[in-house]
Design goal:
64 residues; alpha+beta; two-stranded antiparallel ribbon; 2 strands; 50% helix
Length: 64
Amino acid sequence: MKTPKLLVPALRQYRDSGEDVYVPAFDCEIASQVVIDLSNEIIDLKACLRSCANAANGGLEQYK
């Protein structure tokens, strides 16, 4: 599975104990910040959609 571009900075490789194998993982702090940033973008987009919906329903009448 390909790693999404937003998570590439969080990608890490750890050596498995006792084995000569590397295990892929994600840095928790960086991955959490990516999730927070995306959540904030969703909140902003929802507010924008509400504004657009209000404008389509006559919400701009007050500015005429």
